[in-house]
Each structure stands twice: as C-alpha cells, then as structure tokens.
Design goal:
6-stranded antiparallel beta sheet, 113 residues, alpha+beta
C-alpha cells in the first residue's frame, strides 16, 4: 500500500509559477555576498600600491567586487602590472602575460604585492 502512495505523490510534482520563480531567485542569490565596506585608510593604501605598480613596474594581486544583483555580487582576482590609470573614469588597467582588464577603483577589495 505504501508503494502506491509513494508512486501517486512522487510521479506528479506540481510547481506553481510563483514557486518556480522563488526557487530560481534563491538559486541566483545563493553564493553571492554583500559589497564589503573598506575604510578610508585601507583604500588609501590600496591606491598607493596601484600607483607604485605603475612607477616601479612590479606586479600586484588585485581582488575586486563584481556586482550582479543589487548590492550582492561575487569577487574576482587577478595579478599583473598596472600600465595605465584613468583618473576621469576612476579605473586602472591591470596587465599580465595573457590578459589585460580595466578595474574600477571603487570596486577594489584588496591589493597585495
């Protein structure tokens, strides 16, 4: 008797559109983190390291926040030498052996040597 009941309820799983939207929303948000707050002193040190990389041609490791859903997002990380600083758009160009990318200064989380 239990087998028939399991088959009856297991074979037909109805999902309402609202439930499906909620499940998709939950899966999209899972794994995302809030934008971290960086104090002014830390931010100043990171900007100094970025500038130093352009002047003394040494590689740095940069971690930055990538917003994807409001104030939630993920982190990306790359290493390289800063080749250009665009003060107007508040970004810098990080270049390594196989890639180059522009990174917004407001999104940086950490800069290490």
């Amino acid at each position: 008797m239990a087998k028939k009941i399991d088959d009856l309820f297991g074979a037909s799983r109805w999902v309402l559109p609202e439930q499906k939207a909620a499940i998709l929303e939950h899966n999209a948000v899972r794994g995302l983190v809030e934008r971290p707050s960086i104090d002014e002193d830390e931010f100043g040190e990171m900007c100094f390291r970025i500038y130093d990389s352009t002047q003394y041609d040494y590689a740095i490791n940069v971690k930055w926040f990538v917003p994807s859903k409001g104030c939630l997002g993920t982190f990306e990380e790359a290493w390289g030498v800063v080749r250009e600083i665009d003060a107007t758009r508040k970004r810098f160009k990080l270049v390594n052996d196989w890639d180059s990318r522009w990174i917004n200064v407001e999104d940086i989380v950490s800069v290490t040597k």
